[in-house]
Write the structure tokens for this entry.
Amino acid sequence: MPKGSGGGQGPFVHRDSGERAFLIGIDHRLRRIGGAGASPGSSASSKGQAARDAALPARGSKATLSLQFSAEESLAELHELAISAGAQVVGEFLQRRDKPDPATLVGRGKLEEIAAAAASVSADLILFDHDLTASQQRNIERIVDRRVIDRTQLILDIFARHARTREGQLQVELAQLDYLLPRLSGRGIEMSQLGGGIGTRGPGETQLETDRRKIYRRIRHVKAQIENVRRIRAQQRQRRESIPVATVALVGYTNAGKSTLFNALTNATVLESPKMFATLDPTIRAVTLPSRRRVLLSDTVGFIRSLPHTLISAFRATLEEVERAALVLHISDAANPLSAEQDAEVEKVLTELGVDAKPRLRVRNKLDLLPPPHDNLIDDAETIYVSAAKGIGMSPLLERIDRMLSADAICRIQLRVPQKEGKTLALLEARARIHSRAYKDGLVELDVEAPESVVNRIREWILS
């Protein structure tokens, strides 16, 4: 049985995926808990969901979001996170107590009980649905004699597993290094900063000594590389903004169906997966709206409850696409009984990013998974129902986006274009709505609606 990595026992354990994980949920009774009536496996009725939606504060409100996950719901989410990290869940334990134990979070007696339960199922590691201090993690590992991972470390591991581009790898590494710094004490002369198993996975293969100066030097180096990425992204954005093409950003809780919707609207092939955080690296594609305006659609990383601040900071370059977007599409899973709680968590992150006042449309996805009838699921000014997987509601969604965008305004004009101007006529066919067309004396007379960017290119043919 492998030893834990704490208590001065040396490097993290390097393992392949498929480790046997034992999950520990924490229920501190003094904290406010909301939504406890819905179990993770229950079916959400549209009427019940409407009531939960009504509990959400208005956008821009300073009121505290009171909707929270119950301890059971949070433990179910940890189960999904563990699977996404490649673990095999072999057991769960929910500890209820009035307040956390400063030394071990759950108390020494309860830890001994957990250690016995984990040993009975041959667990390789123990995952806590709570953030642990460095001393708590070491104390727990000494008692349970297994590797211990907290929630933040697990999320960092999933991000490292799914990072594909150099930018994403750098951002994950920076978050891992920030997480690592306070946890260096008592772990020997060397430790694997980027190992191969759950909680230690990373984009590189080098070993770093626990000398803080070397860690700080690496952090400075990674930050400099990320700053270069930001400069390149800013240059690309400036080129995009030199022409009036608006950006529409997709945001939402992880596994809400953002990538499926992105693919349905753009015919792209972004990875679609039921696993959490399957999409990490941002993708931007052009979309033509019903008015023939073109916009850029940006698929972003999914949010999650208590998203580690190190990740929000590290992924600032990626999330700048949300900050600069003309419209934010908030994608939520309409079929998930925890949809209201997930939406509240997304609102928190958007507020932290400073984009909570941006024009926004809530897109309630997975309509096909809701039990019929759907007669009471009516689109309104702020909400629209779709099924990205089945292609339901795509046209109304594009029309709604078209109406909500003010950039590259639509103009109705009359034109008289020589028939020999093939490029101009082709441009109008591709980028304008043609209401009428008549041919006379080698000229084409047209009544069209076209984006301002197109009008500027054909002004010489406009009838005054």
Notes: The longest strand covers residues 88-97. The longest helix spans residues 212-241. Residues 36 and 131 are 22 Å apart (CA to CA). The two ends are 85 Å apart (CA to CA).
